[in-house]
Design a protein that fits this description.
The chain has helices at residues 2-5, 8-17, 43-46, 48-52, 88-97, and strands at residues 26-31, 41-42, 55-60, 66-68, 75-76, 81-86. By secondary structure, the protein is an alpha+beta fold. It has a four-stranded antiparallel beta sheet with strand order 1-6-3-4. The chain has a two-stranded antiparallel ribbon with strand order 2-5. A hairpin with a 5-residue loop joins strand 3 (55-60) and strand 4. The longest helix has 10 residues, at 8-17. The chain is globular, with a radius of gyration of 15 Å. The model has no long low-confidence stretch (mean pLDDT 88).
């Protein structure tokens, strides 16, 4: 609690993420299913922020390991779970895109 008190910007950010601010941002997860066109692509080539508005803040690999703050050169694989921040509508766009044959 004391840590949050000395980091007011973090508190403000968390307030927004938890729906008490002006923007309805959420932390969500989106699974990359088998056969997804995302498989084997680099994040920069998928261009997720431009296409959906979400930001990928982490990736949980199928083996349970995590990549925190993935770079543009991080490869997305089948079975990955993308940890994202965005609105509900933006997350829904990504969920559709990850299974679309025209996605990547």
């Amino acid at each position: 609690m004391a840590s949050l008190a000395i980091r007011p910007s973090v508190v403000s950010f968390l307030d927004i993420v938890t729906h008490h601010g002006e923007v309805d941002l959420r932390l969500e997860e989106v699974e990359v299913p088998k056969g997804s066109p995302f498989h084997g692509k680099l994040l920069r080539d998928l261009d997720i922020p431009r296409k959906t508005g979400v930001i990928v803040i982490g990736i949980r690999r199928e083996d349970g390991s995590f990549i925190l703050n993935p770079t543009s050169t991080t490869m997305v694989l089948e079975g990955d779970t993308l940890i994202i921040i965005g609105t509900k509508e933006q997350a829904e766009k990504l969920k559709k895109l990850v299974t679309s044959k025209e996605a990547a």
